[in-house]
Amino acid sequence: xxxxxxxxxxxxxxxxxxxxxxxxxxxxxxxxxxxxxxxxxxxxxxxxxxxxxxxxxxxxxxxxxxxxxxxxxxxxxxxxxxxxxxxxxxxxxxxxxxxxxxxxxxxx
Length: 108
Prior knowledge:
Layout: H1 2-29, H2 49-54, H3 57-64, H4 70-95
C-alpha cells in the first residue's frame, strides 16, 4: 500500500514538472515570457534558446542569476520539486526494491 502511494505521488509530481517545464521552455524559446536579454550579459548565451532547452535550475541560475521576484520564487519552487522527486524515487526503491533480473541459461 505504501509503495503504491509513493509511486502515485512520484508520478503526479513528475507529470506536473514535465508539463510546466515544457511550457516554460516553449515560452523562453518563443520569447513569450523571457526576461530581458541584459540578464544574459556575461554568460555563454546570446538569447534564451539555450537556457530554454536546458531549463534546469542550476543552468538557469549559473547563466542568468537569481533576480528577486517571481523568477527567484519559481527557481526555489522547482528546485524543491526536483529534490522531492529524487527523495520519493529513493523512497520508492527502498519500499519496493527492484526485482532481481532472471539469468539466461546458455544453450548446451
